[in-house]
Here is the input.
Amino acid sequence: MTDDESDSESMMDRHTTGEDRVRMVARQLSEPQTANWIASEAGWSHEPTKRVLARLVDDGILHRDESGAHTTYYPDYRQQAMQEAMRLRDSGHTVEELTDRLAEMKAQIRDWEDTFGVESPNQLRGTLADETLDGEAEDQRREIAREWEHLQRRIEIVGFAIREWDFLAPTTDPAEASS
Here is the structure.
């Protein structure tokens, strides 16, 4: 660890509480995680983390799933998608720029489909059973499958932001609010 990394970590510890860190980690979840995982990521102990997670569930910010071997927590993905669509709308990009980005993401997926002769990230993962692949090729395909899934989620959000461009517009222009 460099001096800069230890300085930034100690600065984060000094400027945020354990509860703040749990909330930050919980709101950034992209898949369900256990309280232990969240506590570890937040650098806080398990029991207080569980109490914060319980409050976040009560407040409707997180959902709790007790159906598996371990209780997991995950955010309301609809709320996350809406917030991300609003961020895209407010980012200063034009609808044309977002449309171009959407086309680029879709072209990338079509390229992977053509290159590997598959139609989904899981089908790409299935090609790892090919015994002629070396370790580097397997790692590349795993990484592409993860990126493919990420692009599929981004396509949905960017597409939503484009479709709802007018609806997502801020209700007042900052210049109008100060007049």
